[in-house]
Amino acid sequence: MVTKDQLQKKITPLDGQDYGAFQSLIGSYDFEQFVLIIEQIPKDPYAPPHTGIYRLQFPLRDTVIEADMIDSRTGEIACRDFYARQFFYNSSNIAGKRRGPGYSGIITINEPGQTILERSSVVINEHSLEVRCFVGLPASGRKIKARLAIKMLLEELPEIVSLALHRDHTDKDHLLSHIHTAIDAEFLRAKLPDLGLLAFIADGAILPRESGISDRTMPSDSIIAFESPASLKLEIDLPYAGKITGMGIPEGITLLAGGGYHGKSTLLQAIEMGVYNHIAGDGRERCVSLMETVKVRSYSGRHVVNTDISPFIRNLPFGEDTTAFSTENASGSTSQAANIIEAMELGAKVILMDEDTCATNFMIRDMYMQKLVKKSDEPITSYIDKIRQLYLEKKVSTILALGGVGDYFEVADHVIQMVKYHPEDVSDRAKEIIHNYPTKRIKEDVEHCIQPKARIPVEESVDPMSEYKKWRLYATEVKTLHFGQNKIDLTDLEQLVELSQTKAIGFSMLYARKYMDGKRTLKQVIDLVMSDLEEHGLDILNEKISGHYAQFRSFELAFALNRMRSFNVEQID
To answer: I want to staple 197 with a disulfide (CB 3.0 to 4.6 A). Which of 104, 192, 316, 467 is the partner?
Structure first.
């Protein structure tokens, strides 16, 4: 194997040459402390990071990792996540700024967010801890800067590796805390079904976020820690944190009520993010939800294909069939109806909604509108008239944040009012109000059953080739995925949190084609993909090693397919 000194001798004569001359560095190098494998170098300094493949193999014996830390899947994922954070932090401090055009001059790794995810950027092999990073070799214009390249590869990179991975620079207690936090959250989530709960919010949790575009904890001394109302308080004994208390949200229909800016949407957001394990110090590390929890909203303009939305929308003007509804431009109500049916198709057990992002005409028709517009002239059956049926017939619970539609008190099992970020159980008060002031609206279409029809995906509709017959699959932001001729808008997938998830979803869509045989349903195809990922890891998504993927749920994969305008399915009963 070539030594690092020989690597330096290879770099020196490249100074001033065209950037493509860096290709001569592809190979493996022994740095004594670790092995550097350069598998792919971009031919242009402006090329995005995923076009460079750099693998660092560091001996496990030189880390603080012990066998019992990674003897469970949850523990191993948390351990890998920890080292991804260590590497990102140290590379940002040492070589995180661009020193030249494009991406030249930086050493980095996919930035982790607030959630503990399985990541392809760090893997644990039998004898080594492998980090997949990006090194933006430096340039002036498109000419090589050899001296800076030598500094980056022979000075900065070894320093980053040592600080991020070596036992002498690793806080073992910090690593254990990271692992134990994930194991506790996983244990807590697994307890929910036995307790008849949809979610659990721990006392002392810090729910507000830094801003509307940031998932980080709000840095303020005035933050109010969460405290469960006595009627919903539970005590649970966790493997590492011991006994904790908090609010359990039972199965059924729960309303999160309250005035504006009092915290109902913040609580709902904590529940929707409870499908992930969070890092210690996030504030929500002991706030968990069932994995089958799906946030639903309206989103005008989305693609819908052969979806049975008839439980909510029927008898459209001009006889349009809603049992196999397709559109390139869904309305607010049809998009929300499709979102619910698609979630149920994949096995959702909990539907989350925020009144602020719902279509009003989908949520309710009040008594005045019922008197003005006859039901025979209204194709929409409001969610309020289906919410109880969803739970009784399909065991699909709903948690709804609202501040303006008190009619829902009549169908609610529990009502939690947020008052200055303090939750109060006002279920009895809400029932009393309904008793004293009964609603005069008429329940509509309660007899129509809710049975999503299975759909079989058409393989040819999942085509990664662009209009110029070139392969096209990439993502540069969390909520946008480019796939073939499609630019897929994922704005309404509010439980998608990291760019690395979006990238993995794109390649999973391509991988899913192998199971699209014209017989398997969409759910069966998605389940097979997820099973393969769990068994073999994220590396199966691409024949080339990549450090740019993170785990995602089956729901987001299916939802991305459903929003791709070329996607087609055949519906079956």
So the answer is: 192
